[in-house]
């Protein structure tokens, strides 16, 4: 057994995926997943999902052990939660209501089946909490030297046009829903305190330092994207929207370039009653909030709050108090440090 | 650079995914992929795909370096072809016409961008050859220690009910479309002759032995599923159908159990004019033909040919000349030998 699993399963975890066989593993996983209400669920070569308005939105995202998570820092259930939550967030960012997920998972042969069961529990907990009624309609199990999860999610636009990144207009209000910077603050603490003397991710150090129970670390492990605010924004007339996966600044830059506008952050605006628009909030990724623009006369729906305004295209994508804000964030290829943890 | 790439890229392949950065890599890949005709293509958090009859079918399948392919035996373009073809086959097996693919890909940082470009070329070649008009509507790029591809495919049922595994009726004709056993024969030759003296997969040995130009090896690398025969079977009234991914016998067993019938193979029936129903044809996987049942009065469409008949549920799932045929095949968890090649 890979020692990095033991913190979560104990040393006597029972069957592994290699000893149990594909059918037994599948049977044990599927019963823990949320079934949703597909027209046809698992068991045939495809599932069949309703698309009431004759279209569906679709997104896919892969999470890989190493660059995307470490067993020393995240439990299998945390990984299941995050894999579901991040894809649901991309569906919401189009203004759509999630209608289904398919999950492909590849695990080393020595992975305890209990790890996959916990992963499935995390998927179920996320879907139940964030998008009740949605479900996992299909999947695939493989073996790999590297634990890998690939989720594809679908959604229904309810007859509305999809909300694109390219629709922001000068004069629109720039607004955000969801927390900013907490996931990055949690990750920073893990990198600082959740490591052994050689700097490798360590479950023991994470527990001993108190990081294990830090609410920011919990957000890093289990982001809470405001899924319902996506379709609510679309219904309210949002002109542009995207999911804040890589950080407010870099994602705002994407929206600005796609819409050929400049986004002007309110010079002294806080993010909410308690949090300033600090560097972590601007450049920290993985919060999976929603950034959207609304016509100026719209009452902001749900958890959206104003953080700025859309202005004519200038030299910079994003400005604050007249000064450019670097639209930098997380690049999985350039930033990965290769730590295995 | 991983030495196993060099056979395909040469020693001076230029940029790697680590040095080029995500955006540059994406740009170079996307232009090589077939665009298809989504309502909204890549560039936002989701794509939007038409579902004309208010439903869509969906399937997902992951291919992992090691258990599913080896660079010593398959080129990056071969892997792209196979990843697309196997998913298109699952869509066809429901009686649906493929309408789109999304592809998540994770590669080691030292992977030459040229490898991903060739992968994209293979995807395009497969889609163009097997399901013209279909396209890649979205994707995701990640880093991983293990080269991993996850494809999700969609399809349109054209107003027909999906063809399930469970619909076979006593008296139906059992028929197959596509070749049987060739992919397994090719793989067997690679395992026998495409290895170095230590038994590790070897590009040099594959070339030196002549296996590299063996038409059966070509089928192992680039299966040619009869995609159009899927919707043709549905239109002709097929009562049950599935994709032959793991072998005729094991997949026939799945259909028999789902339909609660026994499948009786014609005792002396050949597979086609030139091939007997030998062990490879019965138990070799990865051909991705279609197995279907039709009412006895139906003229078999497309490339379908009769191989048996559906009889009352007996002691065995599959019989031939009154004797049970073992419904065994490929189990990715139980059968993987862990060779890295």
Automatic annotation (TrEMBL), chains A, B:
CDD domains: ThiL
Keywords carried by this UniProt record: ATP-binding, Kinase, Magnesium, Metal-binding, Nucleotide-binding, Thiamine biosynthesis, Transferase
Binding residue positions for Mg(2+) 1: 60-61, 140
Region spans: Disordered: 194-231
Domain PurM-like N-terminal: 43-155
Residues the entry annotates as binding Mg(2+) 5: 246
Positions with a binding annotation for Mg(2+) 4: 45, 59, 90
The protein's role, per its UniProt record: Catalyzes the ATP-dependent phosphorylation of thiamine-monophosphate (TMP) to form thiamine-pyrophosphate (TPP), the active form of vitamin B1.
Source organism superkingdom: Bacteria
Record-listed Mg(2+) 3 binding positions: 45, 90, 243
Name of this chain's protein: Thiamine-monophosphate kinase
Catalytic activity of the protein: thiamine phosphate + ATP = thiamine diphosphate + ADP
Pathway annotation: Cofactor biosynthesis; thiamine diphosphate biosynthesis; thiamine diphosphate from thiamine phosphate: step 1/1
Family, similarity comment: Belongs to the thiamine-monophosphate kinase family.
């Amino acid at each position: 057994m890979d020692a990095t699993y033991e913190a979560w399963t104990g040393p006597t975890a029972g069957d592994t995926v290699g000893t149990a066989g594909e059918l037994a593993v599948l049977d044990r996983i599927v019963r823990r997943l949320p079934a949703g209400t597909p027209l046809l669920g698992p068991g045939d070569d495809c599932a069949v999902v309703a698309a009431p308005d004759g279209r569906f939105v679709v997104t896919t995202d892969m999470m890989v052990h190493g660059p995307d998570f470490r067993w020393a820092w995240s439990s299998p259930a945390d990984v299941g939660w995050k894999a579901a939550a991040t894809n649901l967030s991309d569906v919401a960012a189009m203004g759509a209501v999630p209608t289904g997920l398919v999950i492909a998972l590849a695990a080393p042969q020595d992975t305890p089946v209990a790890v996959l069961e916990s992963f499935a529990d995390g998927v179920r907990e996320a879907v139940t909490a964030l998008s009740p009624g949605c479900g996992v309609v299909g999947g695939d199990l493989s073996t790999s030297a590297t634990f890998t999860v690939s989720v594809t999610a679908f959604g229904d636009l309810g007859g509305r046009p999809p909300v694109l990144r390219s629709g922001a207009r000068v004069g629109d209000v720039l607004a955000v829903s969801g927390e900013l910077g907490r996931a990055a603050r949690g990750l920073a603490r893990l990198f600082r305190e959740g490591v052994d003397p050689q700097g490798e991710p360590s479950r023991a150090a994470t527990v001993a330092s108190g990081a294990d129970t830090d609410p920011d670390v919990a957000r890093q492990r289990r982001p809470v994207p405001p899924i319902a605010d996506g379709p609510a924004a679309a219904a309210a007339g949002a002109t542009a929207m995207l999911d804040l996966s890589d950080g407010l600044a870099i994602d705002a830059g994407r929206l600005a370039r796609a819409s050929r506008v400049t986004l002007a952050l309110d010079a002294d605006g806080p993010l909410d009653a308690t949090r300033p628009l600090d560097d972590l909030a601007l450049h920290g990724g993985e919060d999976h909030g929603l950034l959207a623009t609304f016509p100026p006369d719209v009452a902001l729906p749900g958890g959206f709050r104003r953080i700025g305004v859309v202005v004519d295209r200038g030299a910079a994508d994003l400005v604050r108090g007249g000064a450019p804000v670097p639209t930098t964030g997380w690049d999985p290829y350039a930033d990965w440090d290769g730590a295995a943890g």
